[in-house]
């Protein structure tokens, strides 16, 4: 969904569309903080990154290390979000309580949830967090 004139993106207020291409859309906007006219480019890959993170969140996984090195674009233009090594599983309930489980590799390179296995992994020396 493209922003309409008057829509706000942070401190930017969209004035008009300037053009669109394969990589995204460009808008004339006003920086309301600096009171000057700017061009704002909304990249198409940003939408794909958000959709990938949303899919992970729906499965209860929080990435925690999103950076350019962890985003790759295939020859077909499809974006892949990589490296969930720092990811945590998330579970919440209706009243907003949140519990976290840290995922970490063990010496055997298998992945298992953290807090419930803390005593076992600590006693083996594998837990160095």
Describe this structure in words.
The protein contains 2 helices and 10 strands. With 129 residues, the chain is α+β, with helices and mostly antiparallel strands. The strands form 3 sheets. Strands 1-2-3-4 form a 4-stranded antiparallel β-sheet. It has a 4-stranded antiparallel β-sheet with strand order 5-8-9-10. The chain has helices spanning 44-58, 118-124; strands at residues 8-9, 12-21, 24-31, 36-43, 61-62, 71-73, 79-81, 88-92, 98-105, 111-113. It is elongated. A hairpin with a 4-residue loop joins strand 3 (24-31) and strand 4 (36-43). 17% of the residues lie in helices and 40% in strands. Residues 94-98 and 103-129 have low confidence and may be disordered. It has 2 domains: 8-44; 53-124, no CATH class. The longest helix has 15 residues, at 44-58.
